[in-house]
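The pair is quoted verbatim below.
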Amino acid sequence: MALTLILAHRVSSEEKVGATSGGRTLRIDGVELFPESDSAEIQISAFVNGTEFRYPSVAGVEWLKVAPSMSGQTFKLPKAETYELRIEMRKRQPPDSQLARLVSQETVTLREVPFSGTYRLHGFDPSSSTRSGQVSAEVKFSFQAVK
């Protein structure tokens, strides 16, 4: 007597939440540095519900010069009831291009869209594992519903 076992993939609740229909977008709209700099270049990592989104991440561009005319970037997010946003930044300053890390302890929790905000970042000293009390940068962002 032969027995046939059929295995079916079960869709977990995490996969249901991760479906793209009815999702949202995160848009990085710009960066302001304190003090201002005409030569600074940045990379941003935005973490939404634990998933990392890198800015810039198009056309092979790895660093973006900070300027009032810098282009924004939009990221499609999976549908979820709540979004938790955390942002980190790497900054380099030519000509020596010494790398600085900017962080925050803040997590933005969002339940409704549209929403626009500013995320404040502070300098981080890796040798002492301390965060500066002064704001070193602000990242402008927004959440929108997918149309």
Remarks:
- The radius of gyration is 19 Å.
- The longest helix spans residues 13-17.
- Strands lie at 24-33, 41-48, 51-55, 64-65, 73-77, 83-93, 98-103, 108-110, 115-125, 130-145.
